[in-house]
Amino acid sequence: MLSHTIAFTKFFTLKRFKMVGVSRDAPLGVQCIQKLYIKLCPRLQINRLRWYQVSVLILTYFTYMTYHLTRKPISVVKSVLHQNCSSLTPPPDVDPTDDQWCNWAPFNTTDANTLLGTLDSAFLFSYAGAMFVSGMIAERVDLRYFLSLGMLTSAIFCYLFGIGRTYNIHNIYYYLIVQAGAGIAQTTGWPGTVATVGKWFGNTKKGLIFGVWNSHTSLGNILGTLMAAEYVDKDWSLSFIYPGLMMGAVGFVIWLFLVPEPKYVGLVPGERNTPIRQCTKSDEEDEAEIVSHDAEPTQVLVGDQGASLRSNRYSANTQHEEPTEHTSLLRRPSLSGSSAVSLSRALSIPGVVEFSLSLFFAKLVSYTFLYWLPLYIKTSTNLTAKQSGKLSIVFDVGGAVGAILAGLVSDCTGCPGIVCVVFYMLCAPSLLVYQTWGASSYTLNVWLLILSGVLVNGPYALITTAVSAELGTHSSLAGNSQALATVTAIIDGTGSVGAAIGPMLAGIVSSSGSWSYVFYMLIACNYMALFLLLRIAKSEIAKLKQERRIASPPRVRIE
């Protein structure tokens, strides 16, 4: 009698999960959509794997877009925190001899650029330091909770910076603490999104996919600039508050719908190229299968990749411990052999050190533009703060084009090192040309900014996305997929140290009154990034020559 009761319970439990098709630990929104789909369209056949892959790309795209959306306002607001008061008409109650009357304390000093650079450094150094830890945490937790919690925290810090004006806060330490906290919270974005996308797309060619996907960085910068520029002259607190609210809303959507791994919906991406096939069973067959305790998975071939639709609770002979809502946030390592890797092992992967150091200098250049370009345009031209912010958008437009172009060329050649070297070689002259003639006309400024954006962000985007994902699944890891977040964090964390140093140095150097030395610094860093990839580029050239010799028909010598 007891055995029949157990079989009866298992039968109805299995039937419920087969109807839903997802794990109980899948996002609540996905469970609701799946139930509605089965109820309204029970006979409709769809490529489930492709649907989930597209949804993951879209959700992670908007996730990281909002991360950059909340980073951008500070670069626009700098132009009103400290500006040239002599060109403005002071109110009647202001001392005419006070040349700092229009500036926001504590930035109403002659070394304001240094203080503003310190704000950038507080964000970026905390970001760089926390990134290494964040990557290792991301390997051990549910990425959906990791991202949504990180987005909520980041949105709160963005909001706190904005209310500094609302409540007339003039203490520099308040803004430094808020920036440092925002930097730590922002480290959840990159390892979380890249690891999620990497787990859904396996070892397929990622250059073009990540190139298009990485345009979220440029779109976030563009939207952040537009939102900040709209309120910068009226009430700059709103330049921070509205992006923060938008990020919090997107974070809630991520908590509802993001599926961090295929196993949560019963899918395991494979490599076979097969058409769609739907497997169905009668109730009698299901009952017979349960009573006989058959734990074999039902094979469902989805699209052009194979997938296994497994029961949502692993059989007794497997060693997986699937996380639930009640398990601790930091899970114990899995016994299946796919445990998280150490930092030293991740550093030993061929290419990780070279690409990390190259990204150090590439990100230094990119983030100097990110944080100082609107102020440089306002200083070198006659444009207002709002007009300067909107003009700086075209640099991000070029960055999106550069990310797609670099990813496409990398996919076609299979040589990301060579692609980065070529971009670096062309980037240095373009920066010199922009510094020399960019301010001569508005039209020329636009086109040179687009060109600079393409060449600056192309290799930066390629290294942080496709290269990181490729190295995170390197053959030396013996199939361990848990290294992806750590490798991504190492590469992006090293680059973030450069990103922290660049804006700080730009603030110090520009305080002397000349921006020419800032551009010379950026050009020198660009050449350093190129130099660090020469060995990898050389090995890729040798590989291309070897493949060409193998592909060419053997020559037969007739005497």
Automatic annotation (TrEMBL):
A Pfam family matched in the record: MFS_1
Where it mainly occurs, coarsely classed, is membrane
Query: In this protein, which residues make up the domain named Major facilitator superfamily (MFS) profile?
Result: 56-541
Mark the transmembrane ranges. 49-67, 121-138, 145-166, 172-195, 207-228, 240-259, 352-373, 393-410, 417-434, 446-471, 483-505, 517-537
Q: Where in the cell is it found?
A: Membrane
Indicate how the chain sits in the lipid bilayer.
Multi-pass membrane protein
Q: Which InterPro entries match?
A: MFS, MFS_dom, MFS_trans_sf, Sugar_P_transporter
- Which keywords accompany this UniProt record? Membrane, Sugar transport, Transmembrane, Transmembrane helix, Transport
Give the Gene Ontology MF terms in alphabetical order.
Answer: transmembrane transporter activity
GO CC annotation: membrane
Region annotation (Disordered) ranges:
313-333
**Organism's domain of life?**
Eukaryota
Family affiliation: Belongs to the major facilitator superfamily. Organophosphate:Pi antiporter (OPA) (TC 2.A.1.4) family.
What's the protein name?
A: Sugar phosphate exchanger 3
